[in-house]
Amino acid sequence: MSLSSARSVLEAVGGSDRLEVVPLVIGRDGAVLGPVESARLLGVTPAGELAGDAGGGAAPGLAGTPAGPRGQPAAEGHRGSAGAGDVGAEAAAHGDGSNGAARVELTSRLSDAQRAFDVVFPLLHGPYGEDGSVQGLLKVMGLPFVGSDVLGSAVSMDKLTMKALFAAAGLPQVAHRGVTRHAFATDPEGALAAAAELGTPAFVKPANLGSSIGVSRVDDPADLAAAVASALRYDRRVIVEAAAVGARELEVAVLGNDEPVASGVGEVRVRAGGAAFYDYEAKYTDGHADLFVPADVPGEVAARARALALEAFAAVDAAGLARVDFFYLPDGSLLVNEINTIPGFTRHSMYPLLWQAAGLSYAELVERLVDLALERR
How many CB atoms lie within 10 A of CB 110? Predict the structure, then answer.
């Protein structure tokens, strides 16, 4: 998904006279590919002076690119010439993500980026990319970046913390309980007691993963322990949620910093006979789910969803962009499910589709996000 999102950005603004985009792909070992090699991996033609770098293997200046103004790489974006840098990357999904040597390599190369780029667009889905880790690195380096700061990223990635903040803000949501690896290993029955009170069906999820990785639906109470054990393979904390029975899944896009705006409402429907819920396969396999923009819901429901999306955005101190997901229950009520601070960003993803329906093209959306990243707050 990270690579697909990066590819879409490159295709949309590659010919822009305002933005100069330099792709940098980060491997699972933490090594940074150079712009030429990154472009090849993404299946796009390296632009401008990058095409002249025949080697393409090392991260240039980050580069081996020709020197631009002030002795800096030509890949540098200057506000006067409207240039910008972009990181499109694939983060590790599990484990510690990289060894120490690779982390040193990544840090040393990114330190050169402080002189090379105006802004970074971290299209990094999952751990390390949207949990505040990369955001913290970029902040220490003094590099502006698209999206939420360290706090907003970290608390939005951790489902238990996110829901605690939603509760403090008075947002409606499903009943849920947390289980830690230590508690489950020490006293499994005691650790599951509160979660078992939620009944079935229920969903068990790692607290700090996205894309429905490690998620299980539990229909038989006897299966709860196995589902928790499975989720604990991915994270030391697990969330157990009561199912929103009969609910439709709605989504709203939010754009902005201190004065954010909400899009219209979209809907995700898993096709009949497919997955039991909107799991990884349904999300990323063609033909398993359909997106509807706008969603066929009453006007007052859409207005309520948009208002709740803005409240959720504020509750976690998000910035730039976010997608807020809802359960729309048969009785007409709405429950906030979660907020995603780096939502899927391909041309066919819900977030850009919602803004396209509002009259903002994909390329215009990218430029707006760059402007927001550079906005003084």
Answer: 23
Distance CA 248, CA 267 (A): 8
Total-model pTM: 0.81
pLDDT tens digits for range 161-219: 999 999 999 999 999 999 999 999 999 999 999 999 999 999 999 999 865 788 999 99
- The structural architecture, per CATH, of the domain 175-242 is 2-Layer Sandwich (3.30)
First to last CA, the chain: 30
**Residue in this structure with the two tokens 């196995």, named with its chain if needed:** 226
pLDDT band per the 50, 70, 90 thresholds, residue 289: confident
Q: What is the DSSP letter of 69?
A: G
Closest CA to 57 of 82, 31, 36: 36
Strands (E) in 157-213, as ranges, are 176-180, 202-206
Residue 212, both tokens: 């429905």
Per CATH, domain 248-374 is 3.20.20.140:
no
User: How many residues are listed for the chain in this entry?
Assistant: 377
Give me 208's structure tokens: 């700090």
Task: Give the integer Cα–Cα distance in Å for 165 and 156.
Answer: 9
The rounded distance, in Å, linking the Cα atoms of 343 and 350 is 8
